[in-house]
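Here is a typical sample entry:
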Amino acid sequence: MSDIAVVGDLETIIAFKVIGFDIFPVDKENFVKNMVEVLKKDYKAIFLIEDFKELYDEQKEKKIELFQKSVISLPGKGSQESDYMTKLSTLVEKAIGINIFKDEKK
């Protein structure tokens, strides 16, 4: 088990598996069930693709205890592509302390 979980649609999160993060594919129908599974585990950081942030916030507003944990929202496939990698890189670096998306060609 990794210390980092990434939750979102499979197309967006699959690359995180390659770098060793645990991934949890969800859709709107199974979001709550799968998110509860993630929140019960002892992850140091949980990233949530922003397409699902509203669903997370709805559960948080219902005062469901598990949903009071802090999650970090990542841009999803609906984000503008030019900003996507910049935002993603910055957020991941803040959470884990290293830039795993650094462009080695520079």
